[in-house]
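Obj.: predict assembly geometry.
Materials: sequence records (below).
Method: joint structure prediction, all chains together.
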Amino acid sequence: MSSPSPWNAETAAVLIAEHRALPGALLPMLHALQEEFGYIDQAAVPLLADALNLSRAEIHGVITFYHDFRREPRGRHVVKLCRAESCQSMGADRLVAHAKGRLGVDFHHTTKDGRFTLEQVFCLGNCALSPAVMIDGELHGRVDEAGFDRLLQETGKSK
Amino acid sequence: MSVFRIFVPCDASALSMGAERVAEAVAGLAKARKAEIALVRNGSRGLFWLEPMVEVETPEGRIAFGPVTPQAVGEIFDAAMAPNRAHPLYLGPTEEIPYLKRQQRLTFARCGIVDPLSLEDYRAHGGYRGLERALGMDGAAIVEEVTQSGLRGRGGAGFPTGIKWQTVLKTTAAQKYIVCNADEGDSGTFADRMLMEGDPFVLIEGMTIAGIAVGATEGYVYIRSEYPHAYRQMQRAVGIAREAGHLGPNLLDSGKTFELHIRLGAGAYICGEETSLLESLEGKRGMIRYKPPLPAISGLFGKPTVINNVVSLASVPIILDKGAAHYRDFGMGRSRGTLPIQLAGNVKRGGLIETAFGLTLRQLIEDFGGGTATGRPLRAVQVGGPLGAYFPASLLDLPLDYEAFAAEKGMVGHGGVVVFDDTVDLARQARFAMEFCAIESCGKCTPCRIGSIRGVEVIDRIIADQERDKNLLLLDDLCTTMLDGSLCALGGLTPLPVQSALKHFPQDFDRPAGRIAAE
Ligand SMILES: Cc1cc2nc3c(=O)[nH]c(=O)nc-3n(C[C@H](O)[C@H](O)[C@H](O)COP(=O)(O)O)c2cc1C
Ligand code: SF4
Ligand code: FES
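Observations (raw structure tokens):
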């Protein structure tokens, strides 16, 4: 996962057109847009509505239903902390408190320097190695507070 | 000089412990020593506390080392070549590791053994025999075989798979679908993920058999977005199968057609519920549908649809290959075959344990798991995901069996077992159950949408010791309302963890407020 590109209506139109032939195309379209721009810009809504012959309200309803879709630009790196039961049993709550303190932001927010966006997730399928963290799509297991700091440092270095 | 095959898993959990760097080190070593090493990126055997677990193929079979660091790769290679194999990370012949040896792997027979993206390997280990047999049978006979096997849905509800298929088979329509539920949202579960990463062709084969059986020519796999590795692996595998004529028109020269599409979820737990999943596949909000009509009659895009969990579908090839009786002979009572149990949480040796139904929680946690990871006493076990009950240590002799769990007001669900030590506070776990329901509710019915929010508030008051007795009554009422008035099992079963916590751990709801408020 690299830095997302800034919103661009032409690119968005191309991405939307690429998925248009799929049955049930809206989710694949939204994923493609978020992959490119890091979030779903408000300006994408009318484009999607036109392409799918749906109302803007319907598109908006779908975007807001799913936890994945962001409506604000994200930071360069996305840090997802697992908060589900298995990770709780191994100290996820402590890790969450530590991470929020370290980054100085709450869930769904981005650090002031624009480097990290912090998110919560419920299970990453790494429950035998709890607590689990995902950074830019890479999974990490048995992450304690010190391990978390190390991961942040490494991620920071990779730009 | 002979070529050594060295196996370093590409499973996401193995990667989470540094398997990629180990693989790089193996490749580097091969270069430096000009040794003929073939690096295979297998799936995981499911012995996660040993990951990255590296295997070396020797004339006497595969031997294992773990957990391996990149620095240790050279030593391991030397040890593997030495006659006595002495090395602190040496685990012995892989198949002799007790954790593995004591399992009965049917659905996971190949996981961790084969190169997940090699059709040749897949076939060499029995792959596509089930489909080949199915191609010589008519739809009704295939469905009958699945029914006779006693296979029940492994996604949570435990509904007989053959009966579901039968409904789709006898519903006539121009188009039918096979949908694989790979949303695996339950905490404590990873069997679907392991299988998709470690043996994707078994799922493809299972879905193809389902398609042939009921007359469906198209299938979808709906994978949760939290599983990017599984998603990429399934896409690759489908491409390979299509290329080789194992998917698509006239597959395996049978004259039959089956196409498969891979789709990504978007972080909504509720989309694991089958009707919500279908809505999501159609590009809508994942709102639960009223039933009837059943998806088997009016499912994806209004067409008859088989929707099954990954493990259910991946169990079909071996049933067709070895016959219903072979599968049915494992298990107990009305729980036939094997269950891939996922042992997780605060446990020393977490991993995948596939055995016949009937293993007790104690055998599982003590014999396989080796007790808690922290070494503290075990206090609670949650089985069956976030909607599953919390059991106390006194119930550890419960056998894993659908009916035995139901009798204790619990559920086996997708087979996830999460262990907690004595630092767990069940009032907080109950609060989390309500919070989770509030976050994930699709919003269609009030008892779930509003009830769960009220539930969090009420439990907060109980924890804070505000009018505790009154609020405990209120909580009980709320649970009853959710149980009775919810359209689906999210609202309907959230009371399960809450009430089990109240029943088995009442002292956690009766603590001085200060202790908890201080946290
Ligand atoms: C809230 C909720 C979440 C569910 N999540 C999943 C899931 O992640 N995976 C799954 O296979 N089934 C899940 N189910 C069960 C499905 O609704 C359905 O029973 C299952 O996909 C049927 O397949 P099976 O018969 O092979 O188990 C869930 C059910 C509910 C109520
Ligand atoms: S119980 Fe909850 S999740 Fe299920 S249909 Fe009702 S509101 Fe939606
Ligand atoms: S509960 Fe955290 S990875 Fe599954």
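Conclusions so far: The helical segments of chain A are 9-19, 26-37, 44-52, 56-65, 85-88, 92-103, 145-157.
To do: check interface contacts against the pulldown list.
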